[in-house]
Amino acid sequence: MDLYEHQGKELFRRFGIPVSDGRLATTPEEARQAAEELGGRVVVKAQVLTGGRGKAGGVKLAEGPADAEQKAREILGLDIRGHVVHKVWVEAASEIAKEYYLSITFDRGAKKPLLMLTTRGGVDIEEVAASSPDALARLHVDPLEGFQGYQARRVIYGAGVGDPSEQKQLVAIIGKLYKAFVESDAMLAEINPLIVTPDGEVKALDSKFTVDDSSLYRHPEIAGWRDTAAADPLEAFAREKGVTYVKLDGEVGILGNGAGLSMSTVDVVVVAGGRPANFCDLGGGGSAEGVVDALEVITRDEQVRSVFFNIFGGITRCDEVARGVLQALEQMNLELPLVIRLDGTNAEEGRRLLEEAAPRNLFVEPTMLEAARRAVELAE
Ligand code: GDP
Ligand code: MN
User: What is the pLDDT of residues 27-66, one digit of tens each?
Assistant: First the structure.
């Protein structure tokens, strides 16, 4: 689960990492009110779960309440790479002397958290890593030994931070970020930029924080922060129905049994010249109920013009899936063409059942590629 900047900053605040005072606003008037309460200059920041908001016009400085209202009006409703802004974070503006970058990620290869620090923050960190890898100090923390102060000092020297006051503040911040990372079961904790003000104060100006979904049961409060209203309405609907679904932006709806097969199905539709509308994994089994739920989610997307249902029967038997599909079609009013490819256990029996029932919008194809081509053709 990715946290919004304001949620990440709330966590930072609780762990003692310095952040600016701020307020959440959903309307321009609330932004004005927030700026009044904060006083002075403020920065109005789009709350969306994607980076690069600054470049996209989602972060703007405002001189006071009236300006904050105006900036919020410009930012609210903005579409930042498919994420519509419903909320802005209004915080007391900071003066920036330096922009650093600090992160802890989970390095699965090393099976250890990886600490990274560079004095060249603010810009594209991938570019710094690619063009001048030496500028990025990296250090693995052994989870059994835990985090030690010398490790913070090592990355601080490695990154070339020379100022003793900054060094001291950074040691504290790195220790607290590590604590936040471990205690929240995080997969990522990133501060970019971690600024130094002209007065020499080090603080977090941004937050990118990801909590492991599997551990959310241990963090009910964070789990409750999930914003179902602002999330993609289709993905929220899918979650409600217990369907594994990711929205994409094409026209061919995709349904497969098993994550690997579903991903291959996305690929084969692209090979056939089409654009997948989604990724959807039916999981094992092919009960009518599961099929209805999945089809309801997929077809709720108005861009979908055809659906490709790709089944490989292993433990799941194709004849059962075929019965499930036929029942599903009886239960729901599906207008769109549905292309089915059945292979594996009892495939012939499954195909026979479908061909005998022969609903008019059902197309049975023998191979994955032929089915993809048919689904793409029907979506045109
Ligand atoms: P991102 O673009 O999504 O990573 O959003 P950030 O929160 O990192 O903000 C982008 C940029 O806006 C930062 O790198 C800063 O240069 C600038 N910025 C953000 N907050 C402030 C602020 O309080 N004062 C000033 N002067 N600039 C800010
Ligand atoms: Mn940032």
Answer: 999 999 999 999 999 999 999 998 899 999 999 999 999 9
Ligand (nearest to CA of 47): 1
Nearest to 375, CA basis, from 292, 282, 255, 291: 255
The structure's pTM equals 0.73
Concerning whether 240 is annotated as a catalytic residue, the answer is no
Taking CA atoms, 123 is separated from 65, 107, 164, 198, 276, in Å, by: 29, 22, 25, 19, 33
Ligand closest in space to the Cα of 103: 2
Helix, strand, coil abundance in the chain, percent, nearest 5: 40, 25, 35
pLDDT per position as a tens digit, 246-282:
989 899 999 998 899 999 999 999 999 999 999 999 8
Q: Is the CB of 149 under 6 A from ligand 1?
A: no
Which atom belonging to ligand 1 lies closest to the Cα atom of 192? 8
| pLDDT in the model for residue 142 | 95
CA nearest ligand 1 atom 8, residue: 206
The answer to whether the CB of 341 is under 6 A from ligand 1 is no
- Respond yes or no: is residue 101 known to be catalytic: yes
Spacing, Cα 249 to ligand 2 middle (Å): 26
Coil, helix or strand at residue 64: coil
Q: What is the pLDDT of residues 150-209, one digit of tens each?
A: 999 999 999 999 999 999 999 999 999 999 999 999 999 999 999 999 999 999 999 999
